[in-house]
Amino acid sequence: MQHLSSHPGVVTLKAVYEDARFFHLVMELCSGGRLLDQMREDVLFSEQKPTNLMKELMLVLKYCHDMGVIHHDVKPDNILLSASGSIKLADFGLAARIANGQSLFGVVGSPAYVAPEVLISAYYEKVDIWSAGVVLHALLVGLLPFGGGSVNTVFEAVKNMSINFQDKLWDSI
């Protein structure tokens, strides 16, 4: 977080304190709360609000990737909102540094937001863009595109399901 905190779209780490049992991270106040909470409150957004949120998110992710950082866990829980409503990407607990052209291996991230590449092969920082697309789907439709009763079912849906944009679900958008 310290490596990235000069960007206005990344939550600022103010201080770190350590006691005998814990590290305590003091971050900037994001009084707008989590995007997830706003999604629960508003259920469906107009097209303009997701457009603005996604533009901000793409700029933040580009910055992270340019700085050699893959977030690995882009989801509404980890997108905070400032008092003005602008986004602040948070929770870099799963983040990793990645060199230009370096590929990563291993399943990392939240099941419904993880890219298929993470589940089946080597992957690059672009998996964060997939996760942002899942966030956009949830903002526009009010549902996640991939679901299931277990983590394995969700993973199978992510790997095998194709989204039909002609479906009646999209008629209301």
TrEMBL record:
UniProt entry tagged with the keyword Heme: no
Query: Mind telling me which SMART domains this protein's record contains?
Result: S_TKc (SM00220)
GO CC, sorted alphabetically, is: cytoplasm; nucleus
Q: Which Gene Ontology terms describe the biological processes this protein takes part in?
A: intracellular signal transduction
Q: What Pfam families does UniProt report for this protein, alphabetically?
A: Pkinase
| Record carries keyword Nucleotide-binding | yes
Keywords, alphabetical: ATP-binding, Kinase, Nucleotide-binding, Serine/threonine-protein kinase, Transferase
SUPFAM superfamilies linked to this entry: Protein kinase-like (PK-like)
Protein kinase domain residues: 1-173
Which InterPro entries does this entry report, sorted A to Z? Answer: CDPK_Ser/Thr_kinases, Kinase-like_dom_sf, Prot_kinase_dom, Ser/Thr_kinase_AS
| GO terms of molecular function | ATP binding; calcium-dependent protein serine/threonine kinase activity; calcium/calmodulin-dependent protein kinase activity; calmodulin binding
User: Family assignment?
Assistant: Belongs to the protein kinase superfamily. CAMK Ser/Thr protein kinase family. CaMK subfamily.
Name this polypeptide is given: Protein kinase domain-containing protein
Q: Which organism is it from?
A: Helianthus annuus
